């Protein structure tokens, strides 16, 4: 086996390790999709890309080990499209989660989320009536709100303690009414509406029914978008690092493969010559 074959084998092995990272990201997203994010379609491209890289790098690895030129060609050819797909996916992920931000709340540990701060394809998708019905029932079933209760030495937390807490976007948007409504705290998911009449339309959507809470609020939809933005930001950073490494490995792999072929063609008594048709020498 030639040095460049060893190199191609090594590169394929490293690529294989990268595919595990991408798959891990996709699986992490889908585990969140079932708990916090409640959007179950966005992680699939990542899982498909990760699995493809895994299969193709194994093919390339076998190709390098057994000096199978076809497998190495396949590796280089298919990997080109996978890298293109990954670039496309990173751009897509950036585009869908680019717009929108949370707003800090005065004297509170948590931020709040406003639907009008978000825009774009993902927002249209989330606010879509049919789609929102699925997402909101997923949030309810995830029990993220009922798990929000805290006690200190057996005493339920007070409003002051609650105010200091850092809430995740779903907890902040879906489990409590917006601060602007001016409702009086009873517990984390129960607020006395009193005579307060906030101007926010979410104030009238709030319900102390533990099955309803703020699941129909705009703040809840914004919270879902904020939550996606957070988890996708993390995955995108990993993807960009993986992409850079993948391209470097690919370029080195291409160079090594070309080098291999040149030596094959130059070698007068190499084993390659016996299996290769004569015209390939003439092409030189
Ligand atoms: C708040 O109180 C209501 C009514 O007592 C209860 O159903 C709910 O579980 C409590 N919320 C939390 C987060 O403990």
From TrEMBL:
Family the UniProt entry places it in: Belongs to the tetraspanin (TM4SF) family.
The keyword Membrane is annotated on this UniProt entry: yes
Bilayer-spanning residue ranges: 6-29, 41-64, 70-96, 237-258
Keywords: Membrane, Transmembrane, Transmembrane helix
Membrane topology, as annotated: Multi-pass membrane protein
A Pfam match: Tetraspanin
Protein name listed in UniProt: Tetraspanin-3-like
Biological process annotations from GO: auxin-activated signaling pathway
Places the protein is found: Membrane
GO cellular component: a single term: membrane
């Amino acid at each position: 086996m030639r040095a460049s074959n060893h190199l191609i084998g090594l590169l394929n092995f490293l690529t294989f390790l990268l595919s595990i990272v991408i798959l891990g990201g996709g699986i992490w997203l889908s585990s969140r999709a079932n708990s916090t994010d409640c959007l179950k379609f966005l992680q699939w491209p990542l899982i498909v890309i990760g699995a493809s890289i895994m299969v193709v790098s194994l093919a390339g690895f076998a190709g390098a080990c057994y000096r199978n030129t076809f497998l190495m060609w396949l590796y280089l050819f298919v990997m080109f499209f996978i890298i293109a797909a990954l670039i496309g996916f990173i751009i897509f992920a950036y585009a869908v989660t680019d717009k929108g931000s949370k707003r800090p709340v005065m004297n509170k540990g948590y931020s709040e989320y406003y639907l009008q701060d978000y825009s774009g394809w993902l927002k249209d998708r989330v606010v879509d009536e049919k789609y929102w019905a699925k997402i909101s029932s997923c949030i309810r079933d995830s029990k993220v709100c009922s798990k929000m209760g805290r006690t200190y030495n057996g005493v339920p937390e007070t409003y002051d303690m609650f105010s200091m807490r850092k809430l995740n976007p779903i907890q902040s948007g879906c489990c409590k009414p917006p601060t602007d409504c001016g409702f009086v705290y009873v517990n984390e998911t129960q607020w006395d509406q009193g005579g307060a009449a906030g101007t926010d339309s979410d104030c009238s959507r709030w319900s102390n029914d533990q099955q309803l809470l703020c699941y129909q609020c705009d703040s809840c939809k914004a919270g879902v978008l904020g939550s996606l933005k957070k988890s996708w930001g993390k995955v995108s950073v990993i993807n960009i690092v993986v992409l850079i490494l993948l391209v470097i490995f690919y370029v080195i792999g291409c160079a090594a493969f070309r080098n291999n072929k040149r030596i094959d063609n130059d070698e007068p008594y190499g084993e390659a010559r016996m299996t290769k048709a004569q015209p390939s020498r003439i092409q030189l």
